[in-house]
Amino acid sequence: MQEQIPRKSIWPRVALVSLCLFLFLAIGLLGHLNAAPYAYPLGSFFHIDQGESLRSVARRLEETGYIGNSWLLSLAVRVRGLDRSLIPGDYVFTKRLGTLGIATRITRGDFGVDRAKVTIPEGSTVKEVSDILQRQLPAFSARSFVAVAQSKEGYLFPDTYFFTQFDSEESILSRMRDNFDVQIAPYKIAIASSGYSLPDIITLASLVEKEGNDDESRALIAGILRKRLSLGIPLQVDAVFGYILGKTSDQLTQADLQIDSPYNTYRYKGLPEGPIANPGLAAIRAVLFPKESPYLYYLADKHGKTYYAVDLEGHRLNRAKHLN
Hints:
By secondary structure, the protein is mainly alpha-helical. The chain has 14 helices and six strands.
């Protein structure tokens, strides 16, 4: 009987071919990720909006010629686990970058230009915001900003921003207004069920921001102001005179309390005409989730400590004891 020669297995060859094919595809993919399109828009700005999705950013990068394939950019970002880490702002590309390079920059916030760190405190007015921006940005026009931003009082979210010398007054305003929308989005249900419109909530929050000093006082004051509104009692908030006259509580005269202004909460019942400042989230939350109490009056001494009273007699006693 003739001896049979064993057949060689084909699987090693299949594995080798598969490996070669994988390497070929990987090298090709890497080449695409590192390659920049021919018509690259060097020196122009690319803006990423606050809260914009990776899919939207990738699509616009492809449409404007920065990358050749939006899917590859999305893949490059997601593989690194950074799909929720896009940094909003204006990016400038002064040299041709591949998809990987762009993915790295937009997830690190590498804008390609010097940025000024600008912090807007809670309770700042539009005028105060413009003054802060003018100190930080040499080319910024406070007058132009106030002209376009005054009607947005209350809706410029106080936060820390990074702006460049190329940002226009309109783009800065848009960034701050967009940030407001993003920050209050989680409270849409609470706003809808509060019994107040959004403008009323923001107006009330601006009063609470100026009158309260901490979370506890803000929640109590919000409860008191909401109670006075429901009872038809004038709010009598001194902070409005800082907005109307630039005066603090201890500078007010009896004549000041009678000034004819839609912001005067001594002369007119209900909320003032609009916000007197740009409130932070803590003040907005206080209005949405106020603390109930028996109080109808409150005042703060020169150290910022707040005292409460159930009735006018108790309020007068607090004034005599803590303000004199």
